[in-house]
Amino acid sequence: MEKGWPETEEYARVNKVLQELTLEQKEVFALIAQSSRDGGIHDVLVYLSEQINLNRMDISFGGVAMAKEPFNTELYYDWVCRREGDDWPDPE
After folding, report:
1. What distance in Å separates the CA atoms of residue 53 and residue 56, rounded to the nearest whole number?
2. Whole-model pTM?
3. Which of 32, 46, 49, 78 is least surrounded, with the fewest CB atoms within 10 Å of its CB?
4. By the 8 A CB rule, do 15 and 7 touch?
């Protein structure tokens, strides 16, 4: 909200615009950017859930398979709940 982006030639235009914005305008711009990011994350998780549930895709890391819906809900639903501040369910 205060300093802008790194002072490089690449970001000069961005910083020029940011310096001209009021605090309220910066807050609205930040809300738009955050909403876009959240929407993108949600859409990717919907896609992955569909692939896992409909096309039997598996996701693993270091040879360890990711649990499929460990809390009996889709990936995107779990993400939305955590983003809204809900506690993680007890895995027991």
Report:
1. 6
2. 0.77
3. 32
4. yes
pLDDT digits (tens, 9 = 90+) for 37-61: 999 999 999 999 999 999 989 999 9
Contacts of 22 by beta carbon, 8 Å cutoff, 6+ apart: none
Cβ neighbours of 75 (radius 10 Å): 23
Q: Name the residue type at position 43.
A: D
- Tally of CA atoms within 13 A in the half-sphere of 81 that contains its CB: 11
Residue with tokens 């910066």: 26
Residue 16's CB is within 10 A of a number of other CB atoms, namely 10
Contact predicate 14/5, CB 8 Å:
yes
In DSSP terms, 65 is beta-bridged to 60
CA distance 50 to 57: 9
